[in-house]
Amino acid sequence: MSADQADEIRNYWFKKHQGLENKHLPAVITGGGEFKETTLSPQDSQIIQTRKFQVCDIARIFGVPPHLVGETEKSTSWGTGIEQQSIGFVQYTLRPHLTRIEQEVNRKLFRSDSFFAEFNVNGLLRGDIKGRNEAYRIALGGNQEPGWMTVNEVRKLDNLPPIEGGDILYRPATGENNAKKQAT
């Protein structure tokens, strides 16, 4: 086939089959042309499956959840399952390594209790916004329970600046406290 013939066939094909209005038209191959199906052979499909298994297998060896290396085929994109896998990764894979590093640095660099090295993984362990806010509400003294964190401590966890009067721990008014107030 000459270059002019190839251009003529290409232009004809685009004119007849390009666009939404022509996509339903059947293709006609003339001049002894053959249709070749563009599918994968079983061997190629098996190679692709083997590669996917290798990704998961390597992640398993290093204790990394597959979603952290981009393998999300067998898991939901987001949600509590992924969140729990990420928290598990920090607790069961990262934490032991980080603890050993902390201990070694503290042993070699800081020989007193005044200074120490510590990795802060709280940002990696934080849950979703709803769960965090529920935990903060309880810590501040929700449901009329005594608070065990101040407003400024909670704000610091989310990298927010302190506010005036935010260092007071909440103590609910009890019957005994109300009786003292009324007596004065």
Please give a quick description of this structure.
This is Phage portal protein. The protein has 184 residues and is mostly helical.
Structure commentary:
InterPro entries: Phage/GTA_portal, Portal_HK97. It is a single chain. By secondary structure, the chain is mostly helical. Among the domains are: 78-125, no CATH class; 128-184, no CATH class. 53% of the residues lie in helices and 0% in strands. It contains seven helices and no strands. The chain has helices spanning 3-17, 42-62, 80-108, 122-125, 129-140, 151-157, 175-183. The longest helix has 29 residues, at 80-108. The chain starts with a helix and ends with a helix.
| Count of DSSP H/I helices | 7
Q: What's the number of extended β-strand segments?
A: 0
Would you list the SSEs in sequence order as H and E?
HHHHHHH
Report the C-alpha radius of gyration, rounded.
32 Å
Protein name: Phage portal protein
InterPro entries: Phage/GTA_portal, Portal_HK97
Pfam family, one: Phage_portal
Annotate the secondary structure layout.
Elements (H helix, E strand, L loop, with lengths): L2 H15 L24 H21 L17 H29 L13 H4 L3 H12 L10 H7 L17 H9 L1
